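Lab notebook page, bench 4
Experiment: in silico fold of construct C2
Operator: M.H.
Input chain length: 114 residues
Purpose: comparison with the prior construct
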Amino acid sequence: MSMTTHLADSPDLDAMVRVSSRSLWTDSQWLFDGMRPGLRSNRFRIDWSFALPEEGRFTDPRWAGWLEDTRQFVWSMRVDPPSGRRRARFVTLVSASYKLRILIRWMIDENMRG
């Protein structure tokens, strides 16, 4: 059974699942391991609590479903890549989250709710 299946089926488990030595699934920021001298810390951080166009944050209860779906999609790139592909590196997850942030803000700005 994949990690994403566990997470989708057990909300209580979400709070205990580690995405790194410093972050849990439900944290408003995921701080990944792997920092090296010369790299900026934002290359290893996903901030799920970003501002939205209509005020508020993506971590507000109103967006809980979208937040969970977004986390599962990003994390699946790491734990369940397509057949024949490597697991995504943490910097790739961060990059994907920035791109999704643009899409999410646009969807909200266009009054999409699902």
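Observations: Residues 3-109 form one domain. The helical segments are 3-9, 11-14, 64-79, 90-109.
Next step: discuss at group meeting.
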